[in-house]
Automatic annotation (TrEMBL):
GO CC terms, sorted: cell outer membrane; pore complex
Superkingdom to which the source organism belongs: Bacteria
GO biological process: monoatomic ion transmembrane transport
UniProt GO molecular function: porin activity
Protein name according to UniProt: Outer membrane porin, OmpC family
Domain Porin residue range list: 6-340
């Protein structure tokens, strides 16, 4: 009888409900940039607004309010058909876990941190209203999910009358080096009426090419900065109404012993070297969106970033605007304009740098994009 019971647990009954969904986003366009390393440029561009991807999402009903869940998601380029990563089949997400109607979910694998989950969802760059070029300088707070967390276990609560919370831990996977290239984060949100409030914290230890770096760790190959420690925290509030919404967001990123900004975050071929001191970015963002008609949506935002970088105090001002026309629920076309101006970096060789585009040779960069998106 005991063997029979064990067999029933290992092999769920044939009538258990399960489903697998194929989904994705395709985003391709044309972009003019006034300055890329000193020259204006016209180019075909992938993922101006949303990251181009395809994925599989599945669930299996295990009974008693429990279910197995998984997500496998791959990012790629429509411009050339190439993979987003040469070493990862599912570079965006790859996790499996258990979820309960009453207790929440526990998932394991490659996952988003709590700052992305709670603050990225309220930032212009983390929504379909702004996109990649709306990210804060160097994506310093990871709201555009420049990196995911490997080796991670995440708990996400159920909704308690508008309150949800989550926590994640990414293991270093190194014997004798528990803290080398590990990550942990936590966040919470609360909804009432049209208001949505959220706060989150993230910490990375030895996440880049610094002493103690571990090549099997939580953000290997993805880290935005080379530093002995990165701490990012922030809060956001949005208000939604019938045809749109407005929001305000603050984040701060602090780095200790920072030696570099990696190439994929800096827009330069080799990245930007730093002196090994402390670095700080304070980001203040105001954003909003409005549906002029059921088919036409306008959105935009302004971000001010106050920095401390190698003994200087650069300031970034950035304005982003997007107009989208929806042919259907799945397909739209868009016009996007982005402008960034930075002061206080004269003589450093660092210019304006919209995320997703090569950096400017001056303190200003303007980009205009037209494109099409399809959701499936």
């Amino acid at each position: 009888m005991g063997l029979l019971a064990a067999g029933c647990i290992i092999n769920p009954s044939a009538h258990a409900q399960s489903s697998v969904t194929l989904y994705g986003i395709l985003d391709e366009g044309l972009t003019y940039t006034n300055n890329q390393h000193g020259s204006g440029a016209w180019q075909a561009t992938n993922q101006n607004v949303d990251g181009t991807r395809w994925g599989l999402r599945g669930t299996e009903d295990l009974g008693g309010g429990w279910k197995a869940v998984f997500t496998l998601e791959n990012g790629f380029s429509l411009t050339n058909g190439g993979a987003g990563s040469s070493s990862q089949l599912f570079n965006r997400q790859a996790f499996v876990g258990l979820a309960s109607d009453g207790y929440g979910s526990v998932t394991l694998g490659r996952q988003y941190d709590s700052v992305v989950d709670y603050l990225g969802a309220l930032a212009l760059t983390g929504t379909g209203y702004g996109g990649v070029h709306s990210a804060h300088p160097f994506d310093n707070d990871n709201l555009d999910d420049s990196f995911r967390v490997n080796n991670s276990v995440k708990y996400t609560s159920v909704n308690y009358h508008g309150l949800t919370f989550s926590g994640l831990y990414g293991f270093s996977n190194q014997a004798g080096g528990f803290a080398a290239n590990r990550a942990y984060s936590g966040g919470a949100s609360y909804d009432f009426g049209g208001f949505h409030l959220a706060a989150a914290y993230l910490q990375l230890n030895n996440s880049g090419a610094t002493v103690g770096f571990n090549s099997a760790g939580s953000v290997t190959g993805d880290a935005t900065f080379n530093a002995s420690r990165q701490r990012t925290f922030g809060a956001a509030a949005t208000y939604s109404f019938d045809k749109g919404g407005v929001g305000f967001l603050f984040t701060e990123t602090r780095l200790q012993n920072a030696t570099g900004i990696n190439a994929y975050a800096s827009g330069t071929a080799s990245g930007i070297g730093l002196s090994g001191g402390d670095v700080r970015f304070d980001n203040y963002e105001l954003n909003g969106h409005y549906s002029v008609t059921p088919a036409i949506t306008l959105s935009g935002g302004y971000t001010y970033t106050d920095g401390r970088l190698d003994g200087i105090s650069p300031k970034w001002n950035q304005v982003n605007f997007l107009a989208a026309y929806a042919f259907s629920k799945r397909t739209d076309v868009y016009l996007q304009t982005d402008w960034q101006h930075v002061s206080g970096l004269s003589g450093t060789g660092i210019g304006a740098d919209l995320i997703g585009l090569p950096a400017s040779s001056t303190n200003q960069q303007v980009a205009v994009s037209v494109g099409i998106r399809h959701f499936f």
